[in-house]
Amino acid sequence: MKIVSACLFGVKCRYDQKHNRIESIQQLVGEGKAVPVCPEQMGGLSTPRNPAEIVGGDGDDVLDGKAKVIDHQGNDVTEQFLKGAYETLEMARKVGAKEAILKERSPSCGSCLIYDGTFSRSKKSGHGVTTALLRRHGIRVVSEEKEKKQEESDSR
């Protein structure tokens, strides 16, 4: 069993009320092999919501209390991101997930890249808050980029 970012399944739960649907993710969920989650909604944030970025580090730093998640209006939403990460971990445990396919660049779900905290659309290496927590608990996290590349090669 896997957990997947709900936006990749087609749920309009991104900050801008859009989705990033990937057909193979929809298929996994449809076959009962994956459960969709949105850590930001699970943490109590609304959709749509202000875009947020990690300031002062990455998801590991947020978990360690060394960085914060701030929205573009300067509001501290760290608590909601932490709550969503722990709710996602609980869901992963309940369904026996050993792997998560999450949305790259997200302050929750980024597995390799996140935005750098300047709201300039610049990216840096690092993990989102949920990714960092899942990895600390032995759950493998992979980027949806792999799924998208597979779909593109399959359609050729």
TrEMBL record:
PANTHER family in the cross-refs: HYPOTHETICAL CYTOSOLIC PROTEIN, INNER MEMBRANE PROTEIN
Organism the protein comes from: Melghirimyces algeriensis
Protein name: Uncharacterized conserved protein YbbK, DUF523 family
Pfam families: 2-thiour_desulf
